[in-house]
Amino acid sequence: MLDIVYSQTNMFLACIIMGIAMGFTYDIFRGLRKAVPHSDIIVGLEDIIYWFFWTIIFIDNIFRFNDGEFRIYIFVISATGLVIYRHTISSGVFKLIYYILYLVKKCVKKINKSLKNAVNWGKIKISALRKNKKDLDDGHSAKSKKKKKINKKTV
After folding, report:
1. Which of 111, 79, 91, 85 is nearest to 31 (CA)?
2. Is 57 in contact with 118 (CB distance < 8 Å)?
3. Domain ranges of the chain
4. Are 46 and 105 in contact (CB under 8 A)?
5. Helices 2-35 and 40-66, packing angle to 10 deg
6. Distance between CA atoms of 50 and 64, rounded to whole angstroms?
7. Apex 138 CA angle, 133 and 139, nearest 5
8. What are the pLDDT digits (tens) for 44-73?
């Protein structure tokens, strides 16, 4: 009898934790969507991936903690964990996730701008070198033409 109570307690705690984890992972998706706007197709694909992932986790936990027996209380307890998460720490966690993703986005923009500036600087240097080389080539060929004219006059 004690073994049954122990396994049901484990199932209860696992379902609460799953509900909280579901809310947390969805907050990650929400923060990502707010930091980097997505098209409707990408949002739909993210939702499919989210639900597929959590379906696998649910089924695995049902087999692990409840010997594969589907019970309605499993879903009710998980939903309770999700509601607890949403009404307690979700807003703070979401703001933190969004802030982190915003900083990452800002850093990526700065790095991208620096790389573009470096590439443009390199292009300017290369074009300046080409111009200098062309000027040197033109100057060198002009001197050789003068020498040929001088040689023809003296001959």
Report:
1. 91
2. no
3. 1-88, 108-155
4. no
5. 170
6. 21
7. 95
8. 999 999 999 999 999 998 888 888 888 899
Q: How many residues does the chain have?
A: 155
| Cα–Cα distance list, 33 to 26, 29, 39, 98 (Å) | 10, 6, 9, 9
Please tell me the pTM assigned to this model.
0.68
Mean pLDDT across 6-23: 91
For residue 43, count other CB atoms closer than 10 A to its CB. Answer: 13
CB atoms closer than 10 angstroms to residue 85: 20
Tokens, residue 89: 């720490």
Q: Which helix (DSSP H) or strand (DSSP E) does residue 125 occupy?
A: helix 90-154
